[in-house]
Write a structure and sequence with these properties.
Layout: H1 9-13, E1 18-26, H2 35-43, E2 48-57, E3 63-66, H3 91-99, E4 105-113, H4 118-126, H5 139-151
Antiparallel strand pairs: 1-4, 2-3, 2-4
């Protein structure tokens, strides 16, 4: 398992793109179905977990952090990431993420390196290239576009 750790300049020159995801669940916690898939991505060397934080937002809007141990046995597989912290996520980042949550939910904030893309990204940097734009197309938008194309 590759957990997050402190990063230095040498590490950064060889890294792949870094992404974050904020995943929200109704209620207090996920059911554990996601954990084996996240572990598999790390085991296969596709991603490296840099930071993993859990947040809960009460019905009254108050926010609290959760430790992996607080999540219960259903997500016990995630205990291998206990303490995963690169130092890239600040308290301000976590507060901003919590602002996106609905009351009465819990969430995981995951910062990860796309290690599968590291050789390509390093080659781009060495050749003088730089990333000027990046984005994601939500699956709902793809499905809507396919439905529209099929309807026409």
């Amino acid at each position: 398992m590759t957990k997050g750790s402190g990063l230095n300049g040498d590490d950064l020159s060889e890294m792949g793109p870094i992404d974050y995801v904020l995943v929200e669940w109704p209620g207090r916690q996920p059911n554990g179905e996601v954990a084996p898939h996240l572990v598999d991505l790390v085991d296969r060397g596709l991603i490296r977990i840099l930071d993993l934080s859990f947040i809960t937002k009460a019905e009254d809007g108050s926010v609290a952090g959760l430790e992996i141990a607080d999540l219960g046995g259903e997500v016990a597989e995630l205990s291998i990431f206990e303490g995963a912290s690169s130092g890239l996520l600040s308290d301000e980042d976590i507060s901003e993420a919590a602002g996106a949550l609905e009351p009465g939910t819990s969430a995981a904030l995951l910062l990860f390196e796309n290690t599968w893309a590291a050789p390509f990204a390093s080659a781009v940097r060495r050749s003088g290239g730089q990333l000027v734009a990046s984005g994601r197309i939500p699956v709902q938008a793809v499905l809507a576009a396919l439905d529209a194309a099929e309807a026409s």
